[in-house]
Specification:
This protein has 123 residues and is mostly beta strands. It contains no helices and 11 strands. Strand 5 and strand 6 form a beta hairpin. It starts with a strand and ends with a strand.
Length: 123
Amino acid sequence: EGELVESGGGLVQAGGSLRLSCVASGFTFGRYDIGWLRQVPGKRPEPVSCIASSTDGRTYYADSVKGRFTISSDSAENTVYLQMRNLRAEDTAVYSCAAGLCGGYEVYDYEYRGQGTQVTVSS
């Protein structure tokens, strides 16, 4: 059975950095685009970034994170990373990854989604 497991969240001061990891297992990693979403209590998940599974590995970002977040993929490790810099209080959320299709920076039709990792940015 396929699974995605996130790690790397934590508490950081505004202006700081974190790198999140999303490790895939139990399915063919290269067949799926991988996207990151974030969610705060009481709100719908917000798409953040997506990376295509094609050889060009095209990347997409929401305007709110463009220039601060970088998504990358290591196919040898079945892992997608989200490097987050210059973090702001409004970036506080549970971040999860999902395997599906990139519609720009939004991942959709996802077959797998992880449980998420908490990111808290103190101002």
